[in-house]
């Protein structure tokens, strides 16, 4: 009988385990799984080959369900969506990079090994405990069969008559719908790629030269890691960031620059930043790795390629890229400055390879020296700043631009601050560190534009909202966008966007999807 109890408990726990992170702390979400009664009943009455098939089938099915539910919880915490076997297996390496960069390699290995061992242990114990149904006494089995049959019929009747959302009696059928929904998810993903093939072929931007209104102007497009709408509107962060944006606005205006601000909807949340980059630059909605992989093999011209065709020298500044980046060939860069190519000699800030101020300073040194000389070819740069990337410790601070040098000036800062494991043990500390990193990046960008902003169009935007631990579960996928220039005639060309003047977009400011940006920018500056 103890083995029967163990098997019943394991089956019930796996079936009842929520697959949404927020449901883990909500007891009212837990429902007794109706299938437990049926499984116990069949295990008691089947013999021989029938029992063996049942034991193997239940063990493998529930092991698969447990794996998928744990994966759902993981992707739900980071990306606020369930795990998709068809799409997400391709990003396991990036998940490892994020986890190891946040808590350290040793701790990350420990977490993964502990999870795998626990999963295997549960599977083995479930398989072993099922034999208890065969070893019970005949009289006990007869009584158990009768009791299980009555419970099954009562539960089935209750399930049929209860309301449609299955909440009145705390009973719910879970296994079959769960697997059916997962199969449907995979089928939808395959169909989505077929639809995407048609989207790739339909480009609203015509062939030819564009951006004549920007002739001779450098264009610097900067993605700010994890800079989402919540940073401006969430009461926990709004005061600090709105004060920062207001100060930035006053500083750039004193330097002869003006700003327009709005909102863009990102295709991703919590991570996988390259989906947002691909969406903005291609004008295609890239919300999965499969779509991204197809995009980079297509002939769809990126925003970078359009500028290159119009006479700009295009460059990518990517301090987070530490390995080969074959995808760069799609975008049409004349040059790529990755973490190694930027020449940083200082110490990393945990996962963050270098502070944003150094990235911006290196860009000026590598790409914009001599830009005031006759015959200078204008630059179109795409940059991804990463100081606001998790684990958000230590937080850099601004130094004199003339002292940046090779980056060793930042070593005392890189060695300071608490470790990620300490910060991430307290969600409140995580949120404090997050908003401090956004504040630092905005302060750095304000100082940068004041110093280097002449004859330049800056496009600053977030890549995605941070994870739910920062925003809460129901946050939008919107990110702020700021367009800054010293030539008011350029900003006047954006009047049709109905953007907010200044650095702070309002609730009434229109929201555009990121895949609309490429077309709108071309139309505005042709």
UniProtKB/TrEMBL annotation:
Keyword set, alphabetical order: Membrane, Transmembrane, Transmembrane helix
InterPro entries the UniProt entry points to: Alkaline_phosphatase_core_sf (IPR017850)
Gene3D superfamilies, A to Z: Alkaline Phosphatase, subunit A
Superkingdom of origin: Bacteria
Regions that span the bilayer: 33-54, 103-130, 142-161
Protein's name in the database: Sulfatase
Top-level taxonomy: Bacteria, Pseudomonadati, Pseudomonadota, Alphaproteobacteria, Hyphomicrobiales
């Amino acid at each position: 009988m103890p083995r029967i109890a163990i098997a019943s408990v394991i089956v019930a726990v796996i079936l009842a385990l929520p697959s949404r992170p927020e449901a883990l702390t909500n007891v009212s979400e837990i429902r007794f799984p109706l299938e437990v009664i049926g499984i116990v009943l069949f295990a008691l009455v089947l013999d021989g080959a029938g029992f063996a098939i049942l034991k193997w089938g239940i063990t493998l099915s529930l092991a698969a369900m447990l794996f998928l539910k744990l994966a759902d919880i993981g992707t739900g915490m980071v990306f606020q969506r369930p795990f998709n076997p068809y799409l997400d297996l391709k990003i396991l390496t990036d998940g490892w990079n994020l986890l190891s960069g946040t808590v350290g390699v040793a701790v990350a290995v420990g977490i993964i090994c502990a999870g795998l061992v626990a999963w295997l242990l549960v599977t083995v114990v479930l398989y072993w405990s099922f034999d208890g149904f065969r070893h019970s006494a005949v009289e006990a089995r007869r009584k158990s069969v009768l009791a299980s049959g009555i419970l099954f019929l009562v539960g089935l009747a209750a399930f049929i008559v209860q309301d449609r959302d299955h909440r009145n009696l705390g009973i719910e059928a879970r296994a079959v719908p769960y697997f059916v929904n997962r199969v449907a998810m995979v089928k939808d993903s395959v169909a989505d790629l077929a639809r995407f093939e048609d989207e790739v072929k339909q480009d609203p931007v015509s062939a030819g030269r564009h951006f004549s209104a920007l002739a001779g102007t450098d264009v610097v497009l900067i993605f700010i890691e994890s800079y989402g709408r919540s940073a401006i509107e969430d009461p926990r962060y709004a005061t600090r960031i709105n004060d920062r944006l207001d100060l930035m606005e006053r500083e750039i205006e004193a330097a002869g620059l003006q700003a327009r601000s709005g909102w863009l909807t990102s295709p991703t949340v919590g991570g996988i930043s390259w989906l947002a980059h691909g969406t903005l630059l291609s004008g295609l909605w890239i919300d999965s790795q499969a779509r991204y992989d197809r995009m980079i093999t297509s002939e769809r011209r990126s925003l970078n390629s359009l500028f290159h065709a119009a006479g700009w020298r295009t460059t990518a500044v990517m301090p987070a890229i530490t390995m080969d980046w074959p995808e760069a060939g799609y975008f049409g860069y004349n040059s790529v400055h990755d973490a190694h190519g930027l020449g940083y000699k200082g110490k990393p800030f945990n996962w963050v390879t270098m502070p944003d101020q150094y990235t911006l300073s290196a860009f000026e040194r590598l790409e914009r020296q001599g830009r005031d000389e006759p015959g200078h070819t204008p630059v179109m740069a795409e940059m991804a700043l990463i100081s606001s990337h998790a684990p958000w410790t230590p937080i850099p601070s601004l130094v004199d631009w003339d002292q940046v040098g090779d980056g060793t000036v930042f070593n005392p800062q890189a060695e300071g601050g608490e470790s990620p494991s300490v910060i991430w043990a307290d969600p409140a500390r995580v949120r404090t560190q997050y908003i401090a990193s956004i504040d630092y990046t905005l302060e750095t960008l304000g100082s940068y534009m004041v110093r280097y902003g002449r004859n330049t169009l800056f496009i600053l935007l977030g890549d995605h909202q941070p994870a739910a631990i920062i925003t809460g579960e129901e946050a939008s996928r919107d990110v702020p966008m700021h367009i800054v220039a010293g030539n008011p005639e350029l900003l006047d060309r954006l009047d049709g966007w109905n953007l907010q003047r200044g650095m702070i977009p309002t609730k009434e400011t229109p929201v555009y999807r990121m895949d609309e940006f490429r077309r709108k920018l071309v139309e505005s500056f042709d």
